[in-house]
Amino acid sequence: MTGIRARFAMLVATAAVAPLLIYGIVSVGSLRTATEQSVAAGNSAVARQVALRIQQYFENNGRVLAALGQELAGTQLSEWQQLRVLRNYVLEFPEFSEIALFDADGTRRLSSRATPSELRLPHAAAVSEGLLVTAPRLDEDSLPSADIAVPFVTASGGRLWIVAGISLESLWRAVDSIHVGQRGYAAVIDGSGRVVAHGDPDKKRMIASGESPTTAEQALMETVEENGPPRLHTLRSPGGDLVAVGAKIQNPPWTVIIEQPRTEALAVALRLERQLTAAISIALLATVVAGSWWGRSFIRRIFALTTATEALAAGRMDARVTLTGTDEIAQLGTRFNAMANRLVELQEEIRKQERQAMFGRIAAGLVHDLSHPIQNIGNSCKLIQRIFNDAEYRATFAQTVDRELSTVKRLLEDLRNMARPIPLEKAPVDLNAALMIAIETMAPHAETAGLTLRAELSPEPTFIEADLFAIGRVHRNLILNAIQATAPGGMVVVSSAVTAQRVTVSVRDTGTGIAPDRLQAIFEDFMTTKRRGLGLGLAISRKIVEQLGGRISVTSEVGKGTTFVLDFARSAPARA
Question: Within a 13 Å sphere around the CA of 521, how many CA atoms are in the beta-carbon half?
């Protein structure tokens, strides 16, 4: 992420997109939380109302049985009269299917039913002091029913229990009538975990079959608190997730659960969430599009500057930029164009100065290199006029003129060869033989300079494809440079080596060496480390070597000497 595009995208995302996303996430979360709390409070209120109605239902029936107990205890009725009272209550209150009178030890005294009674005194009667409700069951008509028991004290101080079988059909129908929304229902679960009533038609079979509620509903029953804040629980269901709340019934210890499909309970929140998400998405898209458009117009000008800078660096001095606007980037473009114009002017001035310096260097080199041979020729011409008849001096005169003219010719050829490549005719050349010719030619110079010129040539054939005259010139230039750079008493070693594919020639001297900062420039035109000459020898030598397909390199250490190495592809000897 180092490009300006990536940095700008990160800037837009950080400055605009990220706050909008955070706001959207917080808003959606807050809306969902508030809606869940609202649904939990509303459904919990319904559940508590249902729980209160069920509790009142059993309490009212308990009061009826308590009144019956007071009537039986306050009068001295015979057994048949007590039986008559029991049957009258059954007729008067149709909720009771049977009423029976029990001793404290569970012995049945009387029953309103002519047939054998099915009522039993609950086991909890031994420790209970108030109303008892047994677990629900299905009667002969497959309707839910339960037994309720109420204690009372007789006139003689004895303790008896009135047990009544009560139909829960009205309770069942009351639960069926409770609807939350369109698909929200109520369910009643007893203390043993059996479904007593359920408003969902698809789950009524659980009542008849005695099935237990789902694991999620059982977990909900355990977390319901009588006075705690309402909490919305999620129940997993094959038909879709449900949200549920519960409410406890004190007596009997049952639980009321209100279930509602999540999509229905949170419909408003989900709809607002979708609308808010769509609005945030549209805002994000608009922000990104606007930022991209503005960013492209901003970055395009920077790229134009970059392109122009690269063109200027590549040597296209006519590169300019045209930037609109009046901001800092436009001002930068104006200054860039002014800089480019100034660079063109400076480049032209530098070219003029370089041409003047080069012409001055050439003129100085020509004056220095030509003055000595011309002076010698002039002096010889003056002398020949005086002693023309001297045959010995005429021979010396001819030798002097030939030598000095050869020097002048070689200098002029160097200048010509720098202007156009030397035409070469390649043929198999024995480098060892060429080196021996160059060594023999340069031996007098080495002797005059007080040096030792030594040859260390390979015993193997050293044939390459080359021009004999051109390669000999390279050898003479390198040997002459080595001689001129070496102090008297030093040594110049010319050696050759052969590998399977290559032939190398090295010219090593023990001279003063070349400074590292000048070593890379010695092969350039008009560059020399000596106090005399035009500096064309090494430049011409490199051109000749490259024309022959070879390589030339140099290593040097100041105070210890310099080594030039020529490297060529090996070839087969010429046919006889």
Answer: 9
Rounded to whole angstroms, the Cα distance separating 438 from 575 reads 24
422-569 has which fold?
Answer: Heat Shock Protein 90 (3.30.565)
Q: Residue 258's beta-bridge partner residues?
A: 186, 245
DSSP state of 575: P
More confident residue, 41 or 503: 503
Verify cis geometry, omega within 30 degrees of 0, for the bond prior to 252. Answer: yes
CB-CB contact of 462 with 496 (8 Å): yes
> Distance between CA 545 and CA 131 in Å, rounded?
122
Kindly report the CATH number that applies to the domain delimited by 12-284. Answer: 3.30.450.20
**Rounded Cα–Cα distance for residues 307 and 324 (Å):** 16
Secondary structure class of 76 (helix, strand, coil)? coil
Phi, psi of 468 (to 5 degrees): -60, -45
**Where are the chain's structural domains?**
12-284, 347-420, 422-569
Token pair listed for 26: 């917080």
**pLDDT(388) > 60:** yes
Q: Number of helices and strands (H, E) in the chain? A: 14, 19
Helix axes 79-92, 18-74, angle to 10 degrees: 150
The CA distances from residue 392 to 8, 373, 388, 396, 491, in Å, are 92, 21, 10, 6, 37
Amino acid at 556: S
The CA-based dihedral angle spanning residues 8, 10, 14, 20, taken in that order and rounded to the nearest 10 degrees: 90
CB 125 within 8 A of CB 134: no
Longest CA–CA span in the chain (Å) reads 194
Report the pLDDT averaged over residues 239-258: 82
User: How does pLDDT run across 391-441, given as a tens digit for each residue?
Assistant: 777 778 787 777 677 767 766 666 666 556 566 788 898 989 999 988 888
CA atoms within 13 A on the CB side of 506: 14
Q: Which CATH class is domain 347-420?
A: mainly alpha
Collapsing DSSP to helix, strand or coil, 551 comes out as strand
